[in-house]
Amino acid sequence: MWEHERLVVRTGRRSGLTTMVAVHSTEAGPAVGGCRMKAYGHITDAVTDVLRLSKAMTLKCAAAGIPHGGAKSVIVAGRELTPDLRRAVLLDHAELIDEFGGAYRAGPDVGTGPDDMAVFRELTPYAYCLPEAQGGTGSSSGPTARGVLAALRAASRHTFGTDDLTGRKVVISGFGSVGELIAKGIEGADITVSDVDESRRTDEYGWVHPDEAYEVEADVLVPAAVGGVLSPETVRRLGVKLIVGPANNQLTDDGVADLLAERGIVWVPDHVASAGGVIYTLAREDDGADHEAALKRVDGIEKTVERLLGVEA
Ligand SMILES: NC(=O)c1ccc[n+]([C@@H]2O[C@H](COP(=O)([O-])OP(=O)(O)OC[C@H]3O[C@@H](n4cnc5c(N)ncnc54)[C@H](O)[C@@H]3O)[C@@H](O)[C@H]2O)c1
């Protein structure tokens, strides 16, 4: 069933590259969501991604109690763009964002960052997270990681009876900006990380090949790379008790949640665990909250997860 308000796919007049915006819902308020820049095998894969991600943003805002709807945008491009072509496609995309007249407001996502948001701002006011030097809140990775750690505390109390993870084994799949901050924020645990990018390997933590990350016997699994990692097939092979992480759309379909429950594996929905970035950004940039007050709102994810799992306070 078609449940989105709007999907626009456009060939950029400067770059010749395809970009798209999907607005899932503006019922609760203007729709917010990141702009993903990524290579896709086929254009239909990008459309599927933008539709799923925008819907997840509606759920994320609702679970976080934010008066916004969900949207997402995609720039179909790999990492090999020249600086000129990158700028051209960003300007093309900014033009498209602006046509939504504020119904869609963009932030960074995989493949884009604060500098790209500054390029958007040249053509539209509807971009968050500009670099701090330009008056924005910059990367949201820190608040996102903080929100995951808050979710992890509540979920650990539910699963293990304590939020002290000393001596427990934790596997983090995706050792990027959020994954690394999560690793730093977990005290006393035996941490193993995994990434498709071998250059991310470090002596500080154990290392497992990405193909095996979902088979390791451990207490906690933190999906911090890409979506679609929890399928009926992977769930059968999982050797963990708790899953909580920032990757968006972790399940290949909703039925996988039932399979996890059948196996007694606790899973914190990603739209709850990964909301720290959007909570922080909107608190600072829309509501004028200061850094500490915005972080306090991010920490509210702990209470949300307590309620979700029925944890005794
Ligand atoms: N940064 C945020 O504020 C934020 C907010 C909400 C959700 N998320 C989600 O959290 C996840 C991580 O975000 P990030 O900002 O750290 O991204 P990132 O690009 O910095 O890191 C992702 C890492 O995952 C690795 N990777 C890619 N495919 C992989 C695979 N199949 N197996 C293992 N590793 C793989 C990449 O090499 C990279 O190091 C993403 O799914 C993102 O959508 C991020």
Automatic annotation (TrEMBL):
The record lists the membrane-crossing segments as none
Question: Which positions does UniProt annotate for NAD(+) binding?
Answer: 174-179
Task: Note the Pfam families from the entry.
Answer: ELFV_dehydrog, ELFV_dehydrog_N
Q: Which domain of life is it from?
A: Bacteria
Q: Does the keyword Acetylation apply?
A: no
> Which UniProt key words apply to this protein?
NAD, Nucleotide-binding, Oxidoreductase
PANTHER family from the xrefs? LEUCINE DEHYDROGENASE (PTHR42722), VALINE DEHYDROGENASE (PTHR42722:SF1)
As for family, the record states: Belongs to the Glu/Leu/Phe/Val dehydrogenases family.
> What is the official name of this protein in its record?
Leucine dehydrogenase
